[in-house]
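Re: [help] complex structure
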Amino acid sequence: MSGKTLYDKIWDAHHVSRDANGETILYIDLHLIHEVTTPQAFAGLRAARRPVRRPDRTLAVADHNIPTEGQALGVAAVADLEARAQLQALERNVADFGIEFFPMGDPRNGIVHVVGPEQGRTQPGMTIVCGDSHTSTHGAFGSLAQGIGTSEVEHVLATQTLRQMKSKNMRVTYTGTPGPGVGTKDYALALIGKIGTSGGTGYVIEYAGEAVRALSMEGRMTLCNLTIEAGARAGLVAPDETTYAYLMGRPSAPKGGAWEMALGHWKTFVSDPDARFDSEIAIDVATLAPTVTWGTSPQDVVDIEGRVPDPADFEAERAEAIRRALDYMGLEPGQRIDEARIDRVFIGSCTNSRIEDLRAAAAIAKDRKVAGHVRAMVVAGSGLVKDQAEDEGLDVIFREAGFDWREPGCSMCLGMNPDRLAPGERCASTSNRNFEGRQGRGGRTHLMSPAMAAAAAIAGHIVDVRTLA
Amino acid sequence: MTPFTRLDAKAAPLDVANIDTDQIIPKQFLKTVDREGLARGLFYDMRFDTEGAAKSGFVLDDAAFAGAGMLIAGDNFGCGSSREHAPWALLDFGIRCVISTSFADIFYNNCFQNGLLPIALPRDQVKALMGEARGGNHVFSVDLEAQTVTSPSGQVFAFEIDPGRKEKMLKGLDAIGETLQAAGDIADYEARRSLDQPWLEVAA
Ligand code: SF4
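Output below.
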């Protein structure tokens, strides 16, 4: 018998029971909740008179629809009445069911996928769920972290378990050393470009190889975050010394003797050397260039020296899809991607709003100016990231360069709050989805790394960061 | 949940690949605290202009497809955000079955929580069904017990479905109620875990 993968091990360790149809009841260690995908779940609990089984394993934040200014005022800062009602519903629900909550304005609040790791709640070997697809982010710690829908949120609140069929195992091995200007965002976009947005459907992806081992926790989170854009529900990186060093001393990390005990447990969560994967992919990061998206799907990638596709070079069906995307994006067939003039820049989102991301962007912005026609904004992932950036003087660098320094939240990643693109505006964005209308109806999103987005802000068009650095 | 056994309905063809949940229901409709009333947001950007006036030409607004109960869509339907508002909006509009070559995992799962049947078929079969759906006013039949789709011309295609999901759909079972029958197993698991991993018992 061959060995077990990391995914197999986490799965087995959380197996509660299995029903006649082969569905497993999987125990959930940590449940993160936010205002947008929970009101109907709490309504369901009330209607059935069910309590929350483990409020102590549940944490709530306010992130998706909050404004990025005036947060100290609390919900009074929220002009949109529907958004305000949703935030008030969350406040009421956490109070009624005894769940811990970091409200808007609390420095610990921020994007749910930034907060969990930052507080040390996300730990190796755990099962984690949240009513948000980018829950995959937490897999960077070697935890099985999955996005769920609202009915499943209600199921987890009521039972602290999830009913599931097991996925298949895929391993993506990144080898080599990256060239200048190339980072994890490029690793992830290259993978999505290669296997497509449904290439990972039905799989859990484990990231391995020397290029992954060399990454910081922030880099690993970016990689796992984007796993969902490749269609896989969860991404995993086995924990190692980098993971433990990140966790040590965090508010919710175990302390003293408990730390030693936890460490022994965590170290078992690695794939066995003889484990078999259902699918294997290898990418040499030395071959990658800074990468951006040109179209309306994260698989529409092009390297910065490249050109957008020409529908004439493709068979009918694909050509039609490309034509539709180019038309929406306002690009000419075959044009150079670095000639696309931008109007807006968004540095933020659960993909790239951590301190390392802000440092990378600030390094490019330092002593330079945002192009006159560009409106650029930086939105830290949490209040604590914002505070740290301010301690390091990054806010001053950004402000002096002409960036708008905002308060934390999801912001223009999905534009549920007032931060959004106007129709036709083109945006260099560090977020994760370039779907039609994602950042505002008619808005045109190009996904790229924080350094590339900062470079685009300076140049006023998409540009190769290596020419600026 | 309403049981799903059989559906005889018109099917609307939507020949676009990678329809994501942002397109199925855009963000401005996610601020609700209810499950109902989301039909007004379904495929909003495809159906209405920026002023909110109806655009012409969208298949679900075509009289020939009025009352359609099925949707036949391009590859990789439902990718993107985990919003369950997507199946809620489809159901609220009257769609009880979506046929495609593939579905994104979270969307697929969300459908089963709500009695919306997602059917994955090979591409040539999806194309054949889409061809027959064009023009409207034809009735397609889905038989969940037999796991078949029958086209207006009588072509019969068999589909796969996980037996557990099938049973829950057929009976309209409540997953939470079912899991709570295993409450004893859950308590046993928690008791074991509190010994093995005591650090997780300290308030997070
Ligand atoms: S930052 Fe964007 S992708 Fe991440 S949780 Fe918020 S809305 Fe979702």
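The mean pLDDT of chain A is 97.
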